[in-house]
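Hi F.,

I've been meaning to write this up properly since the lab meeting, where we talked about keeping a consistent format for the predictions we share between groups. The idea is simple: the sequence comes first, exactly as it goes in, then the structure tokens exactly as they come out, then a line or two of notes. No screenshots and no reformatting. I'm using this chain as the first example so we have something concrete to point to.
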Amino acid sequence: MNNKSNAVLEKQREKIKKNIAYRFFKRAMDIVCSVLALVLLSPLLLGTALAIVIEDGGPVIYKQKRVGKNKEIFYMYKFRSMRKDAEKSVHQIKQDHGKTDIGQKLKDSEDPRITKVGRFIRRTNIDELPQIINILAGQMSLVGPRPYVTYEVEEAQALYGDKYDERYDVPPGLTCYWQATFAERCGIEFGKRLEMDVKYVHEANLWIDIKLIVKTAVYSIIGKAGY
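Output, unedited:
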């Protein structure tokens, strides 16, 4: 084997070592941060649950099937921010507001299904906090492509084939490139979001993860996190 082949193999081994180390520290960070968040945010979690019950009764937690790593299905948890019958009318409401792009979101001001408490917890990302349980269970990570609902994945597959399937090579995250970019979140085209997800998979490292977590936290604190 010549020197050139040896150099290529050495680079491949180094890349594998770095990837293993990154995944180990990323998972460790997920566990440590999630446990700390549950302890430190417990008053906020309990207060949010109580506010939801007072305004609209139970249930407090909303769970929905999402597509995760390797396209495995799991239940993602959120604080319920909408009426109990919200899913029955989503497609009609989106059509009424001209939301025809796959995965295109309704702004809170456009969506009559959202409760008063719901508008606040969506604007501050508090509704996403129950996903800490998904992170501890290993179904999600703090940072990674956001998990889509099954029909969005099916429609994306029909349009793009396997072009963006690399996004499923990693666990989905609580935040990601487009989630942490407030300027783009209100109207970013679905294909662009998929491109940004694949970009994250290619560029991911602990420094990028930390920056995205901090950026998302800042937007949440100043109340600019929701649609």
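Notes:
The longest helix spans residues 3-40.
The beta strands are 61-67, 73-79, 141-143, 173-175.

If this format works for you, I'll send the rest the same way.

G.
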